[in-house]
Amino acid sequence: MSSRRLLRPSRVRRSQEGKLVAEYVTINNVRSWYDTEGEGEPLVLLHGGFSDSRDFDGNLRKLAEKFKVYLLDRRGHGHTPDVDGPVSIDMLVDDVVAFIEEVVGGPAYLAGYSSGGFVALAVASRRPDLVRKLVLVSTAYAPEGWLFLPEPDGQMPQQLVDRYAEVSPDGGDHFPVVVRKFAEMELDAAVDPGALASPTLILVGDDDMIHLRHIVDMYEAVPDAQLGIVPAATHLMLFERPDLVTRLVDEFLTTEPVLLMPVRRPGGILAQQQR
User: Fold this and answer.
1) Is the dihedral of CA 55, 116, 217, 181 positive or negative?
2) What span, in angstroms and rounded, lies between the C-alpha atoms of 263 and 247?
3) Between the CA of residue 121 and those of 162, 171, 200, 240, 253, what are the distances in Å?
4) Which secondary-structure segment (H or E) carries 185?
5) How many CB atoms lie within 10 A of CB 264?
6) CA atoms of 238 and 47, how far apart (whole Å)
């Protein structure tokens, strides 16, 4: 069972009203760092692997103009320390579920980038009652969806190494340990996208590290999905096309589609033929 205990933050930021908004909370025995910004309905953002919540600076964090945005540094990433032993997708899902239940306090919009999207996908699959709508940015649902995956003992880009060292309480020398643990986990982690009940937006770059066929398969499997292939974008679309990606996510979260000639969706031609 998870436990919740607020701790003194190592880094804090003040809102325009002068309030401290960055905190630590102990979830599943992990001293986890999170930040909040804005007011309104809750939107939880899950960063990519070997990175931290700064992934959303200059892009989805801008949605704090309409939502209360929660940014969680997942275990072993950013300001949140690593813990002894291997890591599993079940652990990561349990962390996010506990965070939504105990910190957010109820169902939320959930968006994840890269491996953070995979965790979000697994959360929505296991606990649809906690996910109002789901956004997956450059996310694969199984290892074979990736053109290539990081090797457990492989070299990582120096930029990732430096960013980790800037904020990690474990120190920069611990980064290879985190890479090994999470890379090994991703070698066999998979989620059935057909089990999703939440309305889902799937975004991928047209030159992404994920097979486009894999993304289309996921789109066709999810019962209530929208698909966006972002032009002139790679796996780093949050930084390459920040305004476009943010606008697409904003529209998905705040509106409902009005379709004049549906084909695959409920009521569409193919849906009726398959009855």
Assistant:
1) positive
2) 25
3) 29, 30, 9, 24, 16
4) helix 175-186
5) 12
6) 11
Q: State the alpha helices, DSSP H only, in 204-241.
A: 212-221, 237-240
Q: Tell me how long the chain is.
A: 275
Task: Report which of 219, 202, 66, 63 is spatially closest to residue 133, judged by C-alpha positions.
Answer: 202
Which pLDDT does position 153 carry in this prediction? 86
Residue 60's nearest CA partner among 47, 41, 74 is: 47
Q: Mean pLDDT for each consecutive 10-residue tract of the chain (275 residues)?
A: 39 46 89 96 98 98 98 98 96 98 98 98 98 99 94 89 96 96 92 97 98 98 97 98 99 94 80 70
pLDDT at 268: 80
* CA distance linking residue 139 with residue 54, whole number of Å: 18
Output the CA torsion 174→176→177→182 (10° steps). 130
C-alpha to C-alpha distance for 55 and 89, rounded to whole angstroms: 21
Contacts of 273 (CB under 8 A, 6+ apart): none
Q: State the pLDDT at residue 111.
A: 99
Residue 221 structure tokens: 């499997």
Contact 125, 191 (CB under 8 A): yes
Please report, for the chain, the start and end positions of each structural domain, with discontinuous segments joined by +: 6-273
Q: Looking at residue 122, what is its pLDDT?
A: 98
Q: Contact at 8 Å (CB) between 121 and 136?
A: yes
Given a contact cutoff of 8 angstroms between Cβ atoms, the answer to whether 119 and 92 are in contact is yes
* Bridge-based pairing state of the strands 68-72 and 30-37: antiparallel
- The greatest distance separating any two alpha carbons of the chain, rounded to the nearest whole angstrom, comes to 59
Structure tokens given for 135? 């956004």
Fold of the domain built from segment(s) 6-273: Rossmann fold (3.40.50)
Q: Say if CB 138 and CB 114 are below 8 A apart.
A: yes
Q: What integer pLDDT is reported at residue 21 of this predicted model?
A: 55
